[in-house]
Amino acid sequence: MADTESIVREETPNAVIERAKKFLREGCGCSPGSKGGPCSREFREETVLFNLNNCLELTSGELDLIILANIQAFTRNDYVGTKRNGTSRCTYQFQSVLICKEMFLHLYGISYSRLRRLKEHYETHGIYPRTHGNTKRLPSNTLPQSTTENVHNFLTNYVEENAFVLPGRIPGFKSEDVKVPEIPVGEDVIRTCVTPRKVQSVYATLQKEKERHRCAVKLLPYFFSDEELKGSNTDGTHGKHPLDSSKLNSLRVLVFSKFPVECTTERDKLWKQIKAKINDRCRAIKYAKRAN
Ligand SMILES: [Zn+2]
């Protein structure tokens, strides 16, 4: 019996299972069984191990709640939520069979002290999750801040000295627009985006422009007429018409073929900025037309 008291939470699942097997082989020594035998004889080993394995897969909090529900089912106590006076008696069952406490501990893979703590917890709080007592103190394996900073500095220095810098990029600058790598856009790509008549002029525009946002605005006339632009914006907000989304997408393809961006979130962010420039352009055309 003292054996079970020494079961600690940190035990490996395999050790808990081995201990349960040994317990079943030797028998628990109690005698509430149907023929006066020990309760451990009432169950097949597979049944016990199946339940135990399930419990070992649970998180500590989940298992706590299961034990608390069992305690509630088997404890007669009218004073839950008040300070207890004397220990309430608890008889355990598994699949409607009366079992001893030792058997219960092995069925759920918990230690005697954990059961005792949960009983105390139940008497005050009822079925309610236990919070970890140690929420403010740092874990024992936490490294001092200075160590983490040293590692960070080392890695940063190492990267600066050894990393391969992308063509056109300046080391130490994260911004894509400091100097953007540009790639000549092939005619085949352009052909998929605009009508054949426009391919040559789009090709020339793409060659000439050195800046992503400007490039996008310069390409606008190949996709939209001034009439379309002046009454619209990219998303059809503020009561305007939305610009044709497939044309917009072709423009986007051309811009990012010329000025590629690996990261999709970064690309989405840049596209948003480009759309703002396009909308500026739409407004400018509208006011220019009005002035004329
Ligand atoms: Zn027993």
Gist of the model:
This protein has 292 residues and is mainly α.
Query: Structural class of the secondary elements?
Result: mainly alpha
Q: Report the radius of gyration as a whole number of Å.
A: 36 Å
Would you report the number of β strands?
4
Largest sheet: 2 strands, antiparallel
Proportion in β-strands: under 5%
Mean of residue pLDDT? 83
- Flag low-confidence runs: 1-9
Pfam family, one: BEN
Protein name: BEN domain-containing protein
Organism: Porites lobata
Domain BEN: 186-289
Structural features, described:
The chain is mostly helical and 292 residues long. It contains 13 helices and 4 strands. It has helices at residues 2-5, 13-26, 45-57, 60-74, 101-108, 112-125, 145-162, 187-193, 199-208, 212-223, 226-230, 245-258, 264-291; strands at residues 92-94, 97-99, 232-233, 241-242. The strands form 2 sheets. A two-stranded antiparallel ribbon has the order 1-2. A two-stranded parallel sheet has the order 3-4. A hairpin with a 2-residue loop joins strand 1 and strand 2. It starts with a helix and ends with a helix. Residues 28, 30, 38-40, 99-100, 102-103 line the site of zinc ion.
Describe this protein with a few key phrases.
two-stranded parallel ribbon; 13 helices; disordered N terminus; BEN_domain; BEN domain-containing protein
In terms of topology, how is this protein built?
Layout lengths: L1 H4 L7 H14 L18 H13 L2 H15 L17 E3 L2 E3 L1 H8 L3 H14 L19 H18 L24 H7 L5 H10 L3 H12 L2 H5 L1 E2 L7 E2 L2 H14 L5 H28 L1
Parallel strand pairs: 3-4
Antiparallel strand pairs: 1-2
This protein binds zinc ion.
The site of zinc ion has 9 residues, from helix 5.
Protein name: BEN domain-containing protein
